[in-house]
């Protein structure tokens, strides 16, 4: 080379994304509930028709008249029990409820499976188990009315030891009088659980004729016109409360609505993608603290995750990011396909997009990697495991 030849500048180094840390992702797919090795981006197991317990440590599958339970990490079979019933209804770390498919009926057979084996209870009415208390001694039920042609339902409690069904308590732990139980006519859109506090939050939309227990107890007989609310169920203290969401919540499509819990910050978020409305409530007193507006995202199903002083809202092919306290918009990130859920780890956001799971930096939205998950329906939960 000639000494006079111009030297070419050295190529600039391109920063590389950090290697994925060991962990597990749980996602619903066309093949069932899938467990994914996050370090490799590969499915380690898939369980058709299966559900996980509230801690995501055990997976339960009902197949050929047997309830089989698997350790989520190793896939080891830890229990195998013959049961009556065709559908898993509710699970906890203590007990699993199995029952019939939804439909008109005047009496319901529920099989309860726990450490002592399986036993069947017969309950009057059209009953759907929803959740258990942490000790497994209270089973919360949706009681559909009228049982043979249901058009509404109420939440009740079955005392496993006493074998009796009755109303819940109010938030101040007083018994609900006969005839004052609220009856819901809307749609349960989504539920999130605070396992540490023992509280289940369920978002309901389109409640045109709904009247809360607190209104019935107070003798108010006029509907307040609530179109959406969050049903707060304290599983261990056995009380319930309805957190009303302001209009326009509930007026748009149910799938445009979503909720997310930041348990560490004691905050619950609700989002309506059809109008861009977002609110944050305190989980200490079930009161809305602030409301705001993000960009409208019509069409598609909405998902949310919260933590680390931010809330992430995925809908359509976008992830909207807002400040967790002020609700001020922070960022708007593009996805390469329609949103299929979002979950947080300590250091990244995992977003479902079409048949892909995209790893995004929590602060910048920079793409850290991706892997394909055929038949992806929704990313559900992620956790880190020791490397």
From TrEMBL:
Segments for region (Disordered): 1-22, 165-191
Gene3D superfamilies documented for this protein: YVTN repeat-like/Quinoprotein amine dehydrogenase
Protein name (record): Uncharacterized protein
Provenance organism: Nonomuraea polychroma
């Amino acid at each position: 080379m000639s000494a006079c030849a111009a030297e070419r500048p050295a190529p600039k180094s391109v920063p590389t994304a950090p290697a994925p840390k060991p962990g597990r992702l749980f996602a619903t797919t066309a093949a069932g509930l899938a467990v994914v090795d996050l370090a490799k981006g590969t499915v380690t197991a898939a369980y058709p028709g299966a559900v996980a317990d509230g801690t995501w440590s055990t997976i339960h599958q009902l197949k050929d008249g047997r309830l089989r339970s698997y350790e989520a990490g190793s896939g080891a079979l830890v229990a195998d029990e013959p049961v009556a019933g065709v559908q898993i209804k509710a699970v906890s770390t203590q007990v699993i409820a199995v029952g019939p498919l939804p439909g008109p009926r005047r009496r319901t057979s529920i099989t309860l499976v726990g450490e002592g084996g399986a036993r069947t209870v017969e309950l009057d009415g059209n009953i759907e188990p929803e959740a258990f208390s942490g000790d497994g001694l209270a089973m919360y039920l949706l009681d559909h009315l009228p049982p043979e042609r249901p058009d509404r339902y109420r939440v009740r409690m079955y005392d496993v030891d006493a074998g009796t069904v009755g109303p819940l308590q109010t938030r101040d732990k007083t018994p609900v009088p006969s005839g004052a139980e609220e009856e819901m006519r809307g749609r349960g859109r989504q539920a999130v659980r605070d396992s540490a506090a023992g509280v289940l939050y369920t978002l309901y939309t389109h409640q045109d004729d709904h009247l809360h227990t607190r209104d019935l107890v107070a003798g108010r007989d006029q509907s307040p016109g609530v179109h959406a609310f969050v049903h707060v169920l304290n599983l261990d203290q056995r009380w319930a409360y309805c957190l009303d969401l302001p209009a326009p919540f509930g007026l748009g499509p149910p799938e445009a609505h979503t909720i997310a819990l930041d348990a560490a910050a004691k905050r619950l978020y609700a989002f309506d993608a059809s109008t861009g409305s977002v609110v944050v409530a305190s989980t200490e007193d079930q009161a809305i603290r602030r409301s705001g507006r993000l960009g409208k995202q019509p069409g598609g199903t909405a998902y949310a995750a919260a933590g680390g002083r931010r809330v992430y809202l995925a809908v359509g092919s976008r992830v909207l990011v807002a400040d967790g306290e002020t609700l001020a918009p922070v960022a708007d990130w593009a996805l390469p396909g329609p949103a299929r859920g979002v979950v947080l780890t300590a250091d990244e956001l995992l977003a479902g997009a079409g048949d892909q799971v995209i790893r995004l930096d929590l602060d910048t939205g920079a793409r850290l990697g991706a892997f394909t998950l055929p038949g992806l329906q929704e990313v559900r939960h992620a956790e880190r495991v020791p490397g």
